[in-house]
Structure formats: C-alpha cells, structure tokens
Write a structure and sequence with these properties.
With 105 residues, this protein is α+β, with helices and mostly antiparallel strands. The protein has a single domain, classed as Translation Initiation Factor IF3 (2-Layer Sandwich). Strands 1-3-4-2 form a 4-stranded mixed sheet. The N and C termini lie close together (11 Å). Belongs to the UPF0145 family.
Length: 105
C-alpha cells in the first residue's frame, strides 16, 4: 500500500477515488512520564518517554488508516494529513489523527 502526502503518484494515475479514510489514536500521559518530562523541561533535553509515546500513537493511527483503505480495496492513500491535539483536563491526553483519500491506481 502506497501512503503519501502528495495528491498524485508519479507514473501511477488514479483510476478510482474510494473515499476518505482515517485513523485516530488517543493516549493518556503516564504520571511517571509526566514527572520525568517536567524535570527534563527544567534542566533541558529531550523527553524520550513522550517521543516514544508519540511515535507509537502515530504508528497505530497509520495502521488504522491503512486497514480501512485495504478494506475498501485501495492500492494507495493520497493527500495524507497528520494532526496532533492535546485533550483532557490539563492536557493529559494526546490525540493523533491521520486522514487521506483511498484510491485505486
């Protein structure tokens, strides 16, 4: 399955547009990750715990998107958009949302 942010794939014309597909994942922040991240914010440096959680959430969202596209019989998803939102009381949750157009090439 080809997944791209572009609206066309060079040398592969779109034959059919199958519809919009999405993948959303919401993850809660762990208390210990929060504690260590705030310490790291004070002393400087990157927060590996948050980076790992963000990477995992993004991977899961793309897996959902790909699965939905595959169910429609798509060969590719074009025009991918990735969004990140902070949700919940005090920003305690992170949402990763991906969307695009499933197509048959």
């Amino acid at each position: 399955m080809i997944i791209t942010t572009t609206t066309a794939i060079e040398g592969r014309p779109v034959r059919d547009y199958l519809g919009v597909v999405t993948g959303e994942v919401i993850v809660g922040a762990n208390l210990f990750k929060d504690l260590f991240a705030s310490v790291r914010d004070i002393v400087g440096g990157r927060s590996g715990a948050y980076e790992g959680a963000l990477r995992d959430a993004r991977t899961q969202a793309f897996e959902e998107l790909t699965s939905e596209a595959r169910d429609l019989g798509a060969d590719a998803v074009i025009g991918i958009d990735i969004d990140y939102e902070v949700l919940g009381q005090n920003g305690s949750m992170l949402m990763v949302s991906v969307s695009g157009t499933a197509v048959k090439l």
